[in-house]
Amino acid sequence: RHRGPPHRLAARPRRCPLATHRRVQHAVTHGFSPSVSDWVGQCNPQPMRHAISVPLPNEVGALTRMTGMFSSRGYNIDSLNVAPTDDPMVSRVTLVISGSDAAIGQLNTQLAKLVDVVNIHDMTLGEHFERELAIVKLKLATGGMAKALAFAKKHGAEILDDSQVSCTIQLTGRVSEIDAFVQEARDVGGLSAVARSGSVAVSKGEVTLSSFDAYHHLSG
Questions:
Q1: What's the confidence (pLDDT) of residue 180?
Q2: Average pLDDT across the chain, whole number
Q3: Is 202 helix (H, G, I), strand (E, B) or coil?
Q4: Which of 178, 169, 180 minimizes the C-alpha distance to 199?
Q5: Does position 207 have pLDDT exceeding 70, yes or no?
Q6: What local confidence, expressed as pLDDT, does residue 113 receive?
Q7: Is 15 helix (H, G, I), strand (E, B) or coil?
Q8: Complete DSSP assignment for 141-159
Q9: What is the DSSP code (8-state) at residue 168?
Q10: Which residues pair with residue 159 across a beta bridge?
Q11: Which of 116-125, 126-135, 194-203 has the lowest mean pLDDT?
């Protein structure tokens, strides 16, 4: 049949974000991973910051297997903290990663399938306390010690070394406070070194790593 002149053809409509969202949900329901473009095309593509705690067996290779899953799926870990717990056989891993709620939910589900993973707690699904430790080393100009003392007092930080050439200051606080602390340190003296522990977090109230699955699904 006659379709008319080319200039009268209607432009092909762009894919509806809702349709993309449904395609992602269909993929998750049927047990296979959506493509990266599917995740990006969801209705709310704005990446969110997620702090996730994972208890792992304290054995060689357990951490490598877990972090390898993130890299194989193209996710960058913003920070990673590994420390012993009250059980010498178990270490607690706290990692910070950015992504949409749906993408991180799928990632948590895949993470739970790893044989090394004892449990998962996505702290951002509920109220929690999150802290980080930072140590900065500054080279002060002549007379700069008074400025460093005022800087430490303002942030409630502790001076570990009051040497003029290697003034070292420590602060423990919220991530936003640490960011501001490190940024302002540049105005106090020459920044020689910055060491940050990465986030550590614990849930508020009675929810624990062992009981969290009774309150929230792993998929968020």
A1: 96
A2: 78
A3: strand
A4: 178
A5: no
A6: 84
A7: coil
A8: PTTTHHHHHHHHHHHT-EE
A9: E
A10: 169
A11: 116-125
